[in-house]
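tool=predict chain=A
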Amino acid sequence: MSSATNVDATAVNTVHWLSAPETTIVVPVYQRQYRWDIGGCEQLLGDIRAVADSDDRQRHFLGSILSTAADGSDSELVLIDGQQRITTLMLLVAALHHTVLQQPEQQGSALARDLEAVLVRASDRRRTKLRPHRAWAEVFESVVLDRRAPDDQLRDSRFDDNYAFFRSQVLADEVPRIWRGLQKLEHVAITLGADANAQQIFESLNSTGEPLRDHELIHNYVLMGLSHAEQSEIEDTYWLPIEQNTGESIASFWRHYLVMTTGREVAVAGERGVYDAFRQQFPRLDLASLRVHAEQWRQLSEVYRVLLEPGEAPDPAVGVQLGYLNTFGRGMYPLALRAYLDYTRGVTSAEGLIRSLEHIQSLLLRRTVVGVSNDRLVARLCRARALGPDELVQAIARITPSDERVRVALKFSDLPHAGYVLRRIARAEAAASGADDAAAPFAQLSSFDVENIFPLSPADSWSGDGIRTWAEYSDDEQNSHRALAQTLGNLALLEQPLAERTIDRSFPEKRALYAASEVASTAVLALADAWGTASIAARTAALTDLFLGVWARPAVVVIDDDGLTPILDAQRRRGWPRGWEREFEYVEYRGEHWEVYDVKYLFNRIFKRLWADARPAVIAFSARRGGPVYDAQAWNGHWDQLDDDTHLYMGWDSKYMLTAVQGVLDEAGIAAEVFVKYSYIGAIM
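tool=predict ok
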């Protein structure tokens, strides 16, 4: 068997590798610019904190670092893969080092020397061990070696931003903890010989294989570190039943579960949002706590199966309502998951569960009718439900459009979910008439069709009164008919055999078919002499009264919020995406109307207002988070002042600024009273 002499791969301790006197790393010219943002730095720091608090056996694996010897040098390594991670680690160590040096008692200490050994060359303490691309080497070294000039304060640099983030997040008393975590980092150092194909190896490391999905990462995270016997127990007792209950929807199950438990939206597009949220929710899982949580996950997966298959609900009336809810997709599953779980535990009666499901349907349908988005609603409702059933009703009522808005929209707009709406109205009519089984005739929508009384594409011979044909209508008359063709008043629920016979018939010919229908609101059409825009308007008005009764707004006196988004549900965006300067139309702060259009201004105004109104909350939040409030301007960057002795650091990206705003308002206990109104630009960002 031959051995590979051109590739040497060794598992090493990352800090020991960087601290070795002979380690000097060069970033080649072809490497991309440094691109890590605050979100990546936040994740790395969270991982380091987690491993720092674990037992001595635990390590955190950084992946592989690929390098080759520099031409004509035995001491320098050319970095082929791993630049982003090594650069970010250097910035973190630099932030720790400078924090230590600001403490007189720590200058010259063993900790200060250990940190410096990671950063500077043994042969030349004026140079860093990592030598970036020459285009930005000077900027990097000015940050790591603390040689920034006053004019550098406002320069646009990821090195400055990420260094400042680490400085703000790690206070002096936490430096030993972070250093302990750093010393537990490991990676595979892959060093290539002179004849190795660096590009082929780089492509093999980065381009092959299918990336793990969120639920697969959660599965690995849960089982990692357990013995084989323990893994088998968790897998067989809990994980396999969860997979069986959720099937292809297992990824959605975990996202909906996290929204339900955290009361926060969980991002999925372009990020490992579900997995990251899971790790944040469960930073450590020993076997005992894992068993407790896994039992809850299994129970919730059984509930989730019923949401997916409402026919499995033991109570048929509950099953019908769950089926109705699925008309609107799965966006409200986090809330329904909690509601149904309470029902199974006897906390809520069947009547209470049905009432909650009715409220949710009213909310979704009314907002769809008036053209208001249903996105990013469920997290706020989950937060309200955690406070109690009355709070949930109030939260739903606040964002449910009023009867007046719905009445106008139904008159002029196309009816959404027409089959669902007409079937429920038919059931309500049957129940009002005293039928013994109002549900029976309308149990299966598949046996009915949605009939356009005035057809979508009338033939020239079509007539609404048996006298004038469609070809004789004026252009204005035709346009006014077409505009109302999909509104509530022009739609009817009709049995399929009858619907098949209405095709291409004029209204007078359809009347006999309508008379044969068991649907009351359809049968009454036989009494109409003619059909036109006036008839459609009159029928819309009559059916709207039924509509407002079936999809009633909760009887709570609150305002219609007109699409305001609670601050806790505002969307966090990395960096500064195009249009950020006009992301909001305005902000409502505890009943006040603020002309605030972007997150920078919002960040500044919130902290200044709370510094005046709720200073202890600001101090507590900043102490726990490590910023953004400080006693002095400790480093270069964008600053503002809260008072003569207190400074507000303004140098974070959009995502971190909004996170700080949400956190400090939550700390002050007033987050539920602050809303943003997204602008058109913000809605499409």
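The radius of gyration is 32 Å. Residues 490 and 653 are 52 Å apart (CA to CA).
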